[in-house]
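haha ok so turns out i had the wrong file open the whole time. this is the CORRECT one, sorry everyone. sequence first:
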Amino acid sequence: MHTHRGESCDHDEICPVGIALALSLLAFASTWGANFGLDTKRSLMNTPIGATPPPPGSPPPGTPGTIKDPVMTIVLILVTCGLYGYYWLYLTSKEMQEFTGKYAITPALEVVLCIVTGGLYHIYWYYKSFAMLPGMQEQVGRPAADNSVLWLILMFVPFAGIWVLYQFQTELNEIYTTAGQSA
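then structure:
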């Protein structure tokens, strides 16, 4: 037994109000997902993550990203009290997606999720991005090293997170440099 608008409801079967609420939430989620770049038409049961086609005008997979000075990146994040970090996250997501050809979620939505979840998605984003590096290293013919778990743990150690960010950006730079030389 549960209540609707203060009145008790004692359905022995499925509650019609619950069904209506579930359908309206599903419709809202579908519309919201489409507005933020989620592919709501693909079947989640049959299509693997990353199988979403690239956005129109995207460069071909393997296109190297921009080389960024890791020290300047860290300085800008600190000086802007973290605001540059969101811009860096957006650019890094975009460049990693373009390089790998895997477009599961738009970079803009990733930034929004980092903000809306109070940083919880940010932790996931770092792990996901760290875990993408070995595949990117293999893609350019470099030996693959998966430091994703170690780096994620170090992100929680005071000042070690700065070192991890430096290492992450340095590794991306090396991958993009190697890809640019082989192109």
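The CA atoms of residues 62 and 139 lie 8 Å apart.
again sry for the mixup
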